[in-house]
Amino acid sequence: MDPLLRDPRAWGLMLAAMLTIMSNATITPSLPGLQQIFADNPQAPMLTRLLITAPSLLVAIIAPFAGGLTDRLGRRKPLLIGMIVYAVAGTAGLYLDSLEAILASRLALGLGVAAVMTSQAALVGDYFHGPARGRLLGYQMAAVNLGGLVFVSLAGVLAATDARLPFAIYGLSALLLPPLAAVLPEPARFAGEGGAAAQADGAEPGWQLTVAIMSVAAGLTFVIFYAVPTQLPYLLQAEGLTDPRDVGFVMAAMMLAAAVMSIVSGWLRQWLGRIGTPVSGYLTMGAGFAGLALGHSLALSMVSTALIGAGLGLCMPTFITTALNVTPGHHRGLVSGLVTAAIFLGQFLSPLASQPLVAYLGYSGAFGVGAFAFLALAAALTVTLRRKHHI
């Protein structure tokens, strides 16, 4: 057993991470049902899709500022306050009576996600060092996807009864608040300033460029990837798979594969390297998108989303690990905020990019474009990182 898993702080950070990246996708099985509930709203087709990505807009705007505040004020308070906001805003869809009001609550959810994600990511850098940090980020991504597997599967069952019931899942944050408050202490403050201190604090020369490359790569990854939770329910409907539980099964396959791959990504990264790991992830996701473009069965859809999840499990821990590893400790909050902002800006922009493709090319055509986009990203990232020879 990895000694890291005997540290209660590691488990606390995994539970906190579980609330974040895939939080938007929890209500994916509800989308067709919500569209029917609010069928009298002419904007329902677009608004229901924006319910998935609306929190991302707030996260993208707020996360860099939230990260900077954690560098100045500490990590613990933003984390706990963010969990409270997450629980209150996330469950609001249970009782709000218009799509516009639910959309507003989803924006508020983004405030909570921004605080939680930037704080917990910075705490990873504060508590752990070296290979342990990379392994924990892999475990965190696994926790995110295992949580997503349970949440989306449960949401599929709940949505089959009432499209609003999946919003209740966000109340988990309130249950996690006391144990996380107990096991996540405030770390020691960073006192070093300036160039020499930054070098002693774990920075690599040119770390700003490395962080920028990782942030852009993470953002573009999610622009493409988030076509899955926003468009997949409608693709399955078009193929005759109308049961909300089918969406839950397909999403669960993706999250299970992402969880497994995230667990082993820390070890695979030692063999594949900083370039080979995300490039392998991109190629795997491209194959999964191609499968969704060609497939017309539940089984093939599950295999395809499993490939997508496995690819994401390779990419995302590498992006975050690399950014934190090269950054001076007293800027980890800011950098975690920048990477977080990039991820969630990609999520928000995803339906704005994919919906026109769906309109012109259909669902299969749109996912085919996504497959080619991942191939292009693999080539671009290889060229970019090879030019930055010290990465």
From TrEMBL:
CDD domains registered for this protein in UniProt: MFS_arabinose_efflux_permease_like
Keyword set, alphabetical order: Cell membrane, Membrane, Transmembrane, Transmembrane helix
InterPro entries xrefs: MFS (IPR011701), MFS_dom (IPR020846), MFS_Efflux_Transporters (IPR050189)
Membrane-traversing stretches: 49-67, 79-96, 102-124, 136-161, 167-185, 206-228, 248-268, 333-354, 360-385
Major place of residence: membrane
Residue ranges of every copy of the Major facilitator superfamily (MFS) profile domain listed in the record: 9-388
Name of the protein in its database record: MFS transporter
Organism: Paracoccus marinaquae
